[in-house]
Amino acid sequence: MTTTATEQSTTVDDARPATPRDRLPLLLVPLLALIALPLIGSPTTWVTLTIAALAMGMMIFVISSGLTLVFGLMDVLNFGHGAFIAVGAYVAMSVLALFPGLTQASSLPLNLAGLGLATFAAMLVTGLLGFAFERIIIRPVYGQHLKQILITTGGLIVAEQMIHVLWGGDQKPMPLPAGLRGAFTFGDVNIEKFRILAVAVGLVVFATISLVLNRTKLGLLIRAGVENREMVEALGYRIRRLFTGVFVAGSALAGLGGTLWALYRETLTAAIGGEVIVLVFIVIIIGGLGSVGGCFIGSILVAMMANYTGYLAPKVALASNILLMVAILLWRPQGLYPVAKR
Amino acid sequence: MSGIADTLLSGDLPRSRILTALLGVIVGVLALAPLLFDGAQAINTAAKICVFIVLAASYDLLLGYTGIVSFAHTMFFGLGAYGVGLALYGWGATWTSVAAGLALAIVAGLALALVIGLVSLRVKAIFYAMITLAVASAFAILAGQLSDFTGGEDGRSFRVPELLRPATLLFRLPLLNIDITGRTAAYYLVAGSAAGLFLSALRVVNSPFGRVLQAIRENEFRAEAIGFDVVTYRTLGNCLAAVMAVFAGALYALWLRYVGPDTTLSFGIMLDILLMVVIGGMGTLYGAIIGATLFILAQSYLQKLMGAAAKSTQGIPVLPDLLHPDRWLLWLGVLFVLSVYFFPAGIVGTLRSRAVTQEQLPKT
Amino acid sequence: MADPLLTLASVHTHIGQYHILQGVDLTVPTGEVTVLLGRNGAGKTTTLRTIMGLWPPSAGRIAFAGQPIGGLPPPDIARRGIAYVPEQMAVFSDLTVAENMTLAALAGPPDTARLEWIFGLFPALKKFWRSPAGVLSGGQKQMLAIARAIVEPRALLLIDEPTKGIAPAIIESMIAAFAELKRANTTILLVEQNFRFASSLGDTVAVMDDGRIVHRGTMGDLAADSVLQSRLLGLSLDAHA
Q1: CATH code of the domain made up of A25-34+42-331
Q2: Using one digit for the tens of pLDDT, what is the confidence trace for B50-97?
Q3: Does A338 lie at the interface with C, CB-CB under 8 angstroms?
Q4: Residues of chain B falling short of pLDDT 50
């Protein structure tokens, strides 16, 4: 299969996907959707659930893409990633509250501008926080997995507590800007406007990451570094700086994802990070640690599973995703797209 | 005398004078707690310390002695608590229910530990940490959702066997004029079992089996090369730790006469255990005693202190918020991060290495 | 003999608790191919990795083009003009051949004329230019690894056992490529076990044992002296061929 795909990729030349030419995992998405259809019964419900799953999947992807790259590149798993999700959401909430004129106006462009501003602020703050986190918390424990897990978990505790200090511990409302409330109706199918926005944002992020990874020298360095960082250094590149950059970008993406997630929930608490991070871990395990493409498919699969079972048997929604993870690991023990390592 | 201590502690002595004194005070106070303190809060705190010593020690078997980071330890703790609690709730307040519930919980715990171990202990530590986190979250949510069976988020209150009920007056201590009630009996059941479990754990880590676990922690490849089956040993270590956590959960349920997700299954408790073990000292077991005691005292009493401090700093920006009693975990979190950097051996390890350098000083 | 481009003076390297290099003295003359011989575990790979900064020396002096480089991080050493071809080749299998080459070119996109010259040395690379390096055969990967090291002119190439596990036919074409590199006056420090390959390319030779250099001389002298060979290498020329 690899060889046929290779010929394809030589003909399509530069338009090569970020992840290898192994298309089998891609089939899992329609497969899961088709299995769910008869179980759910009603096609309109199924369409609504599938679109909801795509929106949720894109949000999870935005959050997990940075985490998986950081792991792939530096063998660092940041258990404190959830803190960036929460901080991003809180910053966005504060900024949105500052500009009621933009968010409550009945003009969609103004709404989007307000949202853009809030998102930018969220990404800026989480990016800076990521920079500090990498320098202070993670740098001293490179190569020591046990300490990494412990110290980033400690960082998570401290960050969550700081959110309580700065914003208070009670549940906060996170209202959607006026123009994004409600849904479009096509026949019997309702599609919430915000979900369309979430899908769009997720696709833009995926396209941007793919473009950077495949078309820029920076992307080459990241992909090469994921595979063999020592050789990248021996070729003359300071990978540490690269890593800081990826860490900061990953943190900023977590901030973006957190903002979207909070808007999707329309409320937020300091525990928002913990809520999502479990799904994020499942996603990056399913996708293959370090693989952005695997992370993309994994996000959609996990979100579909969550939405379908959330409808069919809400009590076992998370458990069903554990089963999905186990099933995929039994099929491919290193995840959907194992990342080549030395 | 020292011979008895040696046997009891499996030859693994505290090896530091300060540590011995600290442990002596803790064990002494815990042993006499019902006689020393009157208030319900003090006894509750003492019982909680006993339970968490066992829980933290069982976690140390994993983290400190096998080098595995698991986030599913509360799952086993919860299994023990729910096993005993639901048995007492459903089958009546008898010792038979306690035994049956505990037995079921142990079987379930072993099965889960075995499955998780076999699926994920072959892979990197980080995989294991993530997978256990996911499984434990799913378990906690399940326990909260299956409300017909578990009582859901509200949990279940239940009656304990008559001997342990507070209303049962057993006898009156003649000289001190103290009533020995079922509550006292329950406390000693908890404290006695905790002591027994802790000493068994000491025995395990100082057995040949424990030495192999430590060898694997130090150098997996070498241990494998010498001919030890790393996965089997790790899985066994995992199972042992799980069973010990099940016991801790059972004791906790008996003491609280209640089980619920918040007291046994929450991620918060998982973090508490992690903090206890790391601050106390990984891979020492005694660290569990120091860590659990310190942590629960902080949880119960640091808050009061911080409340006073917050009041006295009223008017200064942010500071009162930082010192708010609910923010005690913030400071423990900071302490945790600092201790991972600067005292990776924790309180016990640091005291021990100080004791060693002091012994060596006169010689050099 | 030309001026040394690279000089190691009593270099020691520790890896964890192991003392691997125990005082290595080595000179690599400019414009020549220096072959580092020795049995497995003698410290040849460690010597290359120490020069590259991947395992920094714990003691001793390493000078490149008159400047001390011991203790510098690997990227800095690379940018002074040293290229490294590790034993495991370490091509990036997820990247295409083209991308591997692009990454190795520090001064911008690879120079077209130089690429044509490299394609002349290793024609397979042109054929698989747009394929992921992961699909190449072992020999082709080795060619890519060497091509990557010479995508731009480098003052010094460190090459670790290029013939290891490579089919004889490909070794022949590699000998030709190396001869071409020699004609271009490239300075090479080559670790090699294949004595025939080594003797056909080497100008000077150093033999390592137990973390030290135990013999230095010209390749010609060693190739002609089978007694010396069997004493130093424990095997005769014939056994290696």
Answers
A1: 1.10.3470
A2: 999 999 999 999 998 888 889 999 999 999 999 999 999 999 889 999
A3: no
A4: 363-364
Query: How many domains in chain B?
Result: 1
| Residue type (1 letter), A11 | T
- Among A300, A293, A285, A294, residue whose Cα is nearest residue A334: A285
pLDDT value at position C81? Answer: 93
For B130, which residue in chain A has the nearest alpha carbon? A281
Query: Over 70: is that where the pLDDT of A205 sits?
Result: yes
CB contact (8 A) between residue C92 and residue A342: no
Structure tokens at B26: 């803790």
Residues C124-182: pLDDT tens digits? 899 999 999 988 988 899 999 999 999 999 999 999 998 888 888 888 888 888 888 88
Residue B3 belongs to some domain of the structure = no
The DSSP bridge partners found for residue C189 are C34, C158
Rg of chain B over CA atoms, in angstroms? 21
Q: Which domain holds residue B315?
A: 12-360
Reading the block at residue C25, the tokens are: 């003295």
Domain that holds residue C125: 84-153
CB atoms within 10 A of CB B13: 13
The greatest distance separating any two alpha carbons of chain C, rounded to the nearest whole angstrom, comes to 50
User: What gap in Å lies between CA A310 and CA B148, rounded to an integer?
Assistant: 19
Strands C82-85 and C156-160, bridge-based pairing: parallel
The structure tokens listed for B259 are 């089980």
For residue B4, being part of any structural domain is answered with: no
Reported as a single tens digit per residue, the pLDDT across C100-114 is: 999 999 988 899 999
Give the CATH number of the domain where residue B295 resides: 1.10.3470
Q: How many residues does chain B have?
A: 364
Nearest-CA distance A301 → chain C (Å):
24
Dump strand ranges (E) for A202-279: 267-268
For residues B223 and B216, the answer to whether their CB atoms sit within 8 Å is yes
pLDDT for C194 equals 83
Chain-chain contact of A165 with B327 (C-beta, under 8 angstroms): yes
Has residue A6 got a pLDDT over 80? no
ipTM of the complex: 0.90
Residue B28: CB partners within 8 Å, gap ≥ 6?
Answer: none
Comparing CA positions, the residue from A42, A34, A47 lying closest to residue A183 is: A47
Tokens 């209640």, residue located: B258
| Rounded Cα distance, C176 and C121, in Å | 8
Q: Given the DSSP bridges, would you call strands C187-191 and C33-38 parallel, antiparallel or unpaired?
A: parallel
Cross-chain CB nearest to A224 (options C75, C103, C132): C103
Give kind and range of the element (H or E) at residue C226. Answer: helix C226-233
Are A61 and A198 within 8 A, CB to CB? no
Write out the two tokens for B328: 């005690």
pTM metric for this prediction: 0.83
pLDDT at C13: 93
Out of B126, B330, B336, whose CB is closest to A149? B126
The residue type found at A213 is: L
Enter the tokens of residue C102.
């692009």
Residue type, B188: Y
Write out pLDDT tens, residues A277-331. Answer: 889 999 998 998 888 999 999 999 999 999 999 999 888 888 888 889 888 888 8
Separation between Cα atoms, residue A175 and residue C11, nearest integer Å: 66
Contact C135 A13 (CB under 8 A): no
In a domain, B234, yes or no: yes
Distance of CA B287 to the CA centre of its chain: 11
Condensed to tens digits (0 to 9), the pLDDT of residues C67-83 reads 999 889 999 999 999 99
DSSP C163: T
Residue A20 forms contact with C (CB below 8 Å): yes
C84 bridge partner residues = C158
Min distance C55 CA to chain A CA atoms (Å): 11
Over residues A160-191, the pLDDT tens digits come to 899 988 888 789 998 888 888 888 888 888 88
Reply yes or no on whether the pLDDT at A141 is more than 70.
Answer: yes
What domain count does chain C have? 1
